[in-house]
Amino acid sequence: MRVLTGLQPSGDLHIGNYFGSIKQMLNLQDDNQMLIFIANYHALTSNFNGAELKQNSLKAAAAFLSLGIDPNKSIFWLQSDVKEVLELYWILSQFTPMGLLERAHSYKDKIAKGLNANHGLFSYPVLMAADILLFDTQIVPVGKDQIQHVEIARDIALKVNNTWGEIFTLPSAKVNEEVAVVVGTDGAKMSKSYKNTIDIFASEKVLKKQISSIKTDSTPLEEPKSWQDCNVYNIAKLFLNKQEQENLQARYQKGGEGYGHFKMYLNDLVKDYFASAKNEYENLLNNPAKLKEILEFGASKAKKIAKSKMEKIYEKIGL
Ligand code: ADP
Ligand code: TRP
């Protein structure tokens, strides 16, 4: 299957992102043709600080590579390195009814949150449709909030195909329903907008601070504790196999250890789990030339597919 996804370069990744989405993406690499890009054109709708956007894009690329995107298995590039997508975006705009965009939840939510209604924000789904359709994508793995955008891409593809014949492959969204919501340090959904995250690439000091801020109850040290609704346990279990989870449950039930002990244990789990990725992340960020080389390698492969698709489109539309 040809699977494509775009990743927003929006700040530091947390373990909710990892267990909720990145891990599934990495699993798809082996049996599919994966296309993955850093969506820096999309990020323009919410970031007008050029230096920051550039740095965020490099950080996102370093993060995803170090976590396991393999540029020899997947095509991995920076969206703005394959400019054909903007050309297709304009062409697709002619096949995008206003009503389709007016119904987009994500646009309505952003406006409700006080973002200025501009054309970029409004036409965001058309650019996303161009990302998807340019590469004959079959499957788009997404979080629930993005399903409607994939449906919009499908609607646009259908309209084009009705006019020009079978130009575009119809994409489908794939939502991983089994993935549970990862809780944050306050017990609500972990999210950078709630400032309750445990970050994958945090320094030791920040990691310690984030973990020590996890909310727990006030059961005294010597008493047995309930693991079921403990935020520390619920985060730790993500890193543990069944046997290890049972061992930790036994420690809770036995009493004699305080939440501080369990937090220390969680701290080690997170540190060990991401140790080699963190090392690679820092290496890549210290070597932007290598990072750019990897992104250019991916862009050259993506461009080849994009160019050949555009040739067919030019012919149909008379450009
Ligand atoms: P945030 O809420 O921190 O802004 P994003 O919306 O950027 O995170 O999420 C990026 C991806 O990570 C999405 O696919 C989303 O489903 C997944 N994700 C984010 N937070 C969690 C969480 N707490 N539990 C499970 N998956 C999550
Ligand atoms: N809109 C997506 C998000 O915010 C990012 C994205 C851009 C994307 N283009 C895409 C995702 C194409 C899937 C396919 O997460």
From TrEMBL:
Its EC number is 6.1.1.2. Coiled coil: none annotated. PANTHER family: TRYPTOPHAN--TRNA LIGASE, MITOCHONDRIAL. GO terms for molecular function: tryptophan-tRNA ligase activity. It comes from the Bacteria. InterPro entries: aa-tRNA-synth_I_CS (IPR001412), aa-tRNA-synth_Ic (IPR002305), Rossmann-like_a/b/a_fold (IPR014729), Trp-tRNA-ligase (IPR002306), Trp-tRNA_synthetase (IPR050203). Belongs to the class-I aminoacyl-tRNA synthetase family. The keyword Transmembrane helix does not apply. This is Tryptophan--tRNA ligase. Keywords: Aminoacyl-tRNA synthetase, ATP-binding, Ligase, Nucleotide-binding, Protein biosynthesis. The lineage of its organism: Bacteria, Pseudomonadati, Campylobacterota, Epsilonproteobacteria, Campylobacterales. The gene is trpS. Gene3D superfamilies: HUPs, Tyrosyl-Transfer RNA Synthetase.
